[in-house]
Design a protein that fits this description.
Number of helices: 7
Shape: globular
Strand order of the largest sheet: 2-1-5-3-4
CATH class of the largest domain: Mainly Alpha
Mean pLDDT: 91
Distance between the termini: 57 Å
CATH architecture of the largest domain: Orthogonal Bundle
CATH superfamily of the largest domain: Alpha-helical ferredoxin
Oligomer: single chain
Low-confidence stretches: 1-11
Helix content: 25-40%
Length: 255
């Protein structure tokens, strides 16, 4: 990021800068080289994010540094990574607000590493795909609003941006590779509510050895979610739905 692109302070000038050390994880899958941390010094202003700092490192110090980014405003989820060992979106993580002189940046955990801060998101997509959850839903925030002519109803995107932070933070996904994971289980519950997929299929996904019962309700997933999805809360609600369904089946109750 150039000086002209840097966010400005209240007086219209870039805020005061101070040097911060970045320890950035480096690796290349299949290269045979051992992963390492490279150290970079960045002059950080008060509004600089971790993603801004990575941009400065790549454009001014090491053009081989690899990471993902797109929207720069917490909508796409592509810049999720670990910063000081916590799963975050780097585009909205302010460097100075971290309160540390050294900032450690690593890729998400659990998901297969590709290069540097880039991981393979395929396993996450494969876990969510069987739920059949559609991206759009009716907007619950505009129930009383009058839609313009030609618009039947307001719609909105699902909250989950599939960033993978919850999966990386989950202690169970870190020890059980077969666990469906918080993102997929939260999607399972949302799909049950929406009716996008046959309920029998969704109950089978949830009610298995590596499904909803494998979770230890540590709430790490909810604590790192940047979109307020509350995957732990939805997973708990999913368990209740599964229990009700089992009781209904046991006593032959329809519905």
């Amino acid at each position: 990021m150039t000086e002209s692109q840097r966010p400005l302070s209240g007086n219209g000038r870039p805020g005061p800068k101070r040097p911060v050390t970045f320890r950035v994880y480096r690796s290349r899958a299949g290269s045979g080289a051992e992963p390492r941390f490279d150290t970079f010094q960045v002059d950080v202003d008060p509004r600089m994010t971790v993603l801004d700092a990575l941009e400065d490192i790549r454009t001014g110090q090491d053009p081989t540094l690899l990471y993902r980014h797109s929207c720069h405003h917490a909508s796409c989820g592509t810049c999720a990574m670990k910063v000081n060992h916590r799963d975050v979106l780097s585009c909205v993580t302010n460097v100075l607000e971290l309160g540390t002189e050294v900032v450690t940046v690593e890729p998400l955990g659990v998901l297969p590493p590709i290069s540097d801060l880039v991981v393979d998101m395929t396993p996450l997509a494969e876990q969510i795909s069987p739920t059949g959850l559609k991206t759009l839903r009716l907007s619950e925030y505009n129930a009383k609003a009058v839609a313009p002519e030609g618009v039947g109803a307001y719609h909105r995107f699902e909250n989950c941006i599939e960033c993978g932070a919850c999966v990386s933070a989950c202690p169970i996904t870190n020890t059980d590779s077969d666990f469906l994971g918080p993102a997929a289980l939260a999607a399972t519950y949302r799909a049950l509510l929406k009716g996008d997929t046959l309920p029998e299929k969704l109950y089978a996904l949830a009610d298995c050895e590596h499904g909803a019962w494998r979770c230890h309700t540590g709430w790490e997933c909810t604590s790192v979610c940047p979109s307020d999805v509350d995957p732990a809360g939805l997973l708990t609600a999913l368990r209740r739905r599964v229990l009700v369904q089992k009781v209904r089946r046991l006593f032959g109750i329809g519905g």
